[in-house]
Amino acid sequence: MSSKPAPEIQLTIDGRPVSVPAGTTIFDAARINGIPIPTLCHQQNENPVGVCRVCVVDVGQRVYAASCIRQVEPGMTVKTSTEQVQAARHTLIELLMSDHPAPCARQQHSGDCELERLAEAAAIGQPRFPRRATPRGKDDSSAVIAVDHESCILCDRCIRGCDDIRHNWVLARRGKGYQAGVAFDNNLPMAESSCVSCGECMVSCPTGALTNKRVVGTELGQGDVLDPTELLHLPIFQNVSGTFLELNQKAVVKRHYRAGDIICREGEFGSTAFYILEGKAEVFLSSPMAHVRTEGSSKGFFSRLKSMLAPRQQHSRSEESNRPFIPIDASVDLPYDSPIAELGPGDLFGEMTCMSYYPRSATVRAKTDGVMLEMLRNVLDILQRNKTFRAQLERTYRTRALDSHLRSVPIFASLTKNFIDHLRDRVELVRFSPGQVICRQGEPADSFYLIRIGFVKVSEERPGGDLILAYLARGGYFGEIALLSGSPRTATCTALDHVEVVRILREDFELMLERFPEVRASLEKVAHERLEENRRRITQIQNLPVDQFLANGLMEAQSLLVLDLDRCTRCDQCVRACADAHDGVSRLVREGLRFDKYLVATSCRQCRDPLCMVGCPVGSIRRRNTLEVIIEDWCIGCGLCANNCPYGNINLHPFPVELDDPDHPGRMIAGTRVKATSCDLCHDHAEPSCVYACPHDAAHRVNPPEFFAGLLKQSSPLNRS
Amino acid sequence: MFEELRAIQRQFGYLPADQLQQLAAKLGLPLSRIHSVASFYPHFYLTQPARAEVRVCADMSCHLRGGQELKTNLEQAFRGNEDVSIRQVSCLGRCDSAPALAINDHIYCGLDAPSSLSKVRDVLSGHPLPAEPRDHPRAPVASDPYAGSPNYSVVRRFVETRDWSGIIAVLKASGLRGMGGAGFPTGNKWEIVRNAPGKEKYIVCNADESEPGTIKDRFIMETVPYLVIEGMITAGLVTGARQGILYIRHEYEEPKEILQQEIDRCYREGLLGPHILGSDLAFDLEIFISPGGYICGEESALLEAIEGKRAEPRNKPPFPGTNGLWNQPTVINNVETFTFATAILARGGDWFKTQGKNGSTGMKFVGISGDVQHPGVFEVPMGTPYSELIYECAGGVLDNRELLAFAPSGPSSGYLPASMADLTLDWNAVAAAGSMVGSGAIVVCAAGRCMLDMALNAVRFYRNESCGKCVPCRMGSQKMVEMLTGWTQGQASSTDLQLIDELSTAMKLTSICGLGQVVPVPILSVLKHFPAVVEEHITQRRCSAGVCFPKRGAA
Q1: If exposure means fewest CB atoms within 10 Å of the residue's CB, which of A121, A332, A365, B215 is most exposed?
Q2: Rounded to two decimals, what is the model's pTM?
Q3: What is the pLDDT of residues B321-335, one digit of tens each?
Q4: d(CA B39, CA A574)
C-alpha cells in the first residue's frame, strides 16, 4: 500500500515563510526551521499534552496557543517570541520557581534541571510570588529512584513514560487543583506500588522530582563492566530504560568463574547478589551441623559443665525442630541431612544480603566454569521488579522450592504431592517493602502467608502503643488464626525489611483443611498456642504499673537475673559459676540497670521484643514455648544475633573443628568455628548455676512483672502515707 | 466508572483501597487510573468520612448572605468533635435561598445557625435527615410555546418534513446564541456537527451549572423540562446523532427526577427510542449525573467526565463540533439554549427576534441573587437595563440599601459599579463595558460591602475549582489568592500591583480553558472600578467596610 504524503502547509513563523506537512505541530515546524521554542512538558518521544504552557506562541487569536500540541494551519502567522509572549513565559517560569526547591536534586547532581535552566535564562532570581506554604513531601522508599514531590511541576512526562512508552500504568495524577500531584497506583509509596523499576519516569523527569539514587553498597570489585545494551539483550532486563541502566552502570559487573572458585562464604557480610548466566554452582553449609551442648554432673556445688557440639540426632533438646530443610538466601532450600544444592543459569542468590545487608547464608562454589552477574541493590531492585524476571522467579519457586518450603512447616508435612501440585499454580509471590503492612488487625482475612524472604513483625494494637508478639523469619508462616476462626485479623503483620511472602488464598487454604484433617488439627493447635501466648502477655501488661519498667526496657523481659545489692558482696561467685558451667566462657556479666536495691544483671532476658531473632540469615534462632532462646544446628556463626541483642546476652563460642584445606583439596586441617549460644538457664541443673552458686542468697531469677509489681506497690509514695 | 464508585461509596461510606483494587480488576483498568479519577472529584471520599459531613457554601451570594458566619458558628459549636467535619463547599446552586449548606449530601437553604446546629445534632443522634423541602410553585414561563401542555410539535413536524436545513436556517436567522456563557451561535454549531463526518454523533446538554449566582437552569429544568428534551431530540434529528446525554450536577436531585419522568414519558409515547413516532429515525436520551466540580461545566472537561476520566479541559482546537465525545462530532449546548431552540422552532424565528427591547433581540432567563429583596429566576427580554432587573424583578436592594456594585454573570463577569446599572442586558453592550452577559447570573452587592473582599471571594472560588491541569491556572490562582489575602490582612508588597497585572495577563493568554482565563477578572474589575478600595487596603491598611483585617483582640 502506498500512502499519500501529507499535503504541505504554508505558514509564517517569526516573519519567515515556512512549509511543513499537514499535521505538523507549530513546535515541530519551528524546530525544523531552526527556531527553538522553550518547553518543559514536551519531549520528542512522548505525545504532547500542552500543560506547562511554556511553549505558547501568538497565532493572532484572543489567547496564545501551546505550540507543542497545536497543529499548523494554512496561512497561519506565528510569533514565537514577541515581548508579550516572553513576558507570559517569564511569569509561568517564575510561578513554577516559586514552589521549586532550587537547587533541586537534579540540579545538584547533574546541573540539568530544565526548569532551573529556563529560570536562569530568563534571569529569574528570587521569585516574587509567595512560596508554597504546605510541604508536598518526599518518598524515599524505592531502592533506585528518589522521589521529591516538592520539585514536581506536574508536566506529566513521567506519567506518559510509564503509561504510553512502557505500558506499566503505575503513575497517574492524583487530586485536583493546587493540591494535585503525581501518585503511584493508589497513592502508595513508590516501593509499595506495582512499579517495575524500569526507570522511564526518572529518565523523563525534567526536574529533581524523580532522580536516580546513588549506587548503594560497597564498590564492586573488578569485573567486566556491562554496556547497557548488553543488559537490555537479557530478557530479565526487558523494558527497562537504557538511560536508566546507564546511570546504574556501576552497580553491576559480569564475572567469570573457574570450577572450584568460591563465590561467597557463609557468615561474611556483603552487599551484592548474584545472577547465574552460565554454568553451575554448588551452594552448601560448611559449618558443622550441630548445636552447643552443655553437659556434666548435676551433683556437686561447683560442678564443671562441658560445652561441646552435638547434632540433633545425638542430642535432642525439648521442642527440638525436626525441619527437614534449611532456608537459605537462594531459590532453593538445603536438606538438613546433606546441606548442599545446585544452582544453574537463571538462578539468583544473595537477595537478602544485597537488599538488607544480612550476612551470607551459605557458601557458593562454582561447580563448572561459569558466568555470573554480580550486582548492588540498585540493579537488583530493577531485576526483582522486572516482569519477565518475576515470572521466571515464580516459575523457579513453584517448581523447586514450594515443596520443601511447605514441608519445612511441620504442620504441612502430611500434604500429598497431588495437593502441592494443585497449590503450585495457585500460590502467589508478593513483595513488601520495609514498614509495609501485610495484613492489618481487624480487617477481614483472605490469605495465609509463608515467608520466603525477610522478616515479619507480628504486633497487636493496644491502647498506648503496639505490642510486639513475634518476629517471623524465612520459613515462618502467619495468617492462620483468622482463617481458622473466620474472624477478622487478630494481629498486624508488618514487613521489617524487604519481604517476599507466598500467598495462599483463603479458598485453597480451606480446601487444604478439608482434605487433610491432620493439618487442620495441628494448625488449630498452633493457633491456640499462639493465641494463649498472646493473651498471657497482654494480661501481664494490663496488670502492671508499667511506666518505669518501659523506660528501662525491663518490660521486654520475661525472666531476669536480679541481684539484691543489699545482700550482694560483689564476690563474683555467680560469674565464676557461669563460666565454670560453660567451658570457662561466662554468659553472665555482673553489670546492668539498677532498680531500687536490685541490679538487673546482663543475662538473657527472653525479651518480649526479641531483636536477636531478626536477621539470622539461615533462620537458626528461635524460641521455645518456654521462651528460652534456642539456636538450631545450622547456625553459621555469623554473629548477627549477638550484635542485635541490646543486652549483650548472646555470645559466640569457639570450637575446634576439622576443615577442608583450601590449599590442598581433599585434605583436612584443624581450624576453629564459632556457634552462638545464650543463657540456657543451665537446664541440666536443678537451678541456674549462678543462682545456685551465690553464697549470700542475693541472686534470683525472677519474672519481672510479678517481682516488680510488688516492689512498685511498696515504693509508691501513695502507699507510704 | 462513576456508577461503580458511587455503589462502593454507598456500601462502605467511602472508597476503601481494596475495593478500588477490586474495581480495577473488574473493569480491566489500572489501579492508578481509578485512583486518579476518584481523587479528582471531591464527592468521593478516599478515607472514612466523619458521621456528619457538613459543607457550607461561602461563594458570592452565600458569602453575601452569611455563609461564612454560619460556617464559623458551626465550627465553634463542634470544635474538637471528631464526628463532625465542617468544610467549605463550592456553590450548591441555591443562590436564591442563600446561605446553603449540605449535611451528608442533603442540601438545606436559608438556615440560620441554631437550626443548622440542630440538624447536625439530629444526624449525630441517628435521626434520619428530612428531605429538602420542595420549592414554592413556579410561575408559568412566557416563552413556553405549549403553555404547560407539551405536544412536541417540533419533533412531530421534523419526522414528517425531515427539513434539517430549514431548522438550521431558522436558528441562524433567530440569532440564538449559546446561553451557557460563551454565546456561540447555535445554528452554526448544529450545522458544523451536521456536516462533520463521523460514525456516531452525540448531543450533550450541559446542565452542570455551578458558577456562583447561576440558578436559571435548575428553574428551567423544573418548569419546562419538555422544552429541554425536545431541543435535544431535535438537535439529534437535525445532526444525525442518535444518542443524547443530559449532564446534570449531582446536587440537582429534584430537576433530575422531573427530567427523568419526562424522558420516561417520551419513551412511552414514542418520542424517544429506535423508531421515533414510528419512523426510521432513532434517538436515545439518558441522564448522566456529574461526579462534581465546577470545571465539569467546561464543555471539553464535561466530555472527559462522561468518558470516565478526570474532568480536565482539552486543548482546543479541535472543538467538540468535530472531535467531541469519544472523539466524535458532538453538539454541546446549555439547558437554556435547547429550551429557546425549541421555543423558536415551535413559534418561528421571528418570534424570538421581536422579544427584545431597547434595540436588543431575544429572551433570557436571569438569576438575581445576593443583596436583593426577592432573589430568584426571571424570564426577561434582552435589552432590559440591569437597574430594572435589580429594582423591579428582584424588588430592589436588600433593606433598601444603596446599590454598590453588581456582577452581570457571577465571578466570571467581574463587578460593575452602581453607576453602570443602566447598562442593558445586551451581548455587545455589556462586552463593550468590559464585562459579559454570560449566563445571566446577576449578583448584587449593597453599600457596605468590601469589594476587595468580594474579589478575593470570587478568585478563591476559581482557585478551589481549578482542575490543576495547566500551570497558569493551577499555580496562578493559588498565588493570586495568597496575594489578595495578604492585602486583606495588611501584608501587601510594593510590587504586588505590578505582579498581579503580569500574572493576570499571563493567565488570560496562556490558560488552557476559560476557567484559568477568567480567574483574574474579579480583581481586575475591582482594580478598575473601585481603585480607592484597593488603595486604602494596601497603603493605609484600612477597610472602610470593616470587613477585612484581623479584628483587634481576636486570636
Answers
A1: A121
A2: 0.84
A3: 999 999 999 999 999
A4: 65
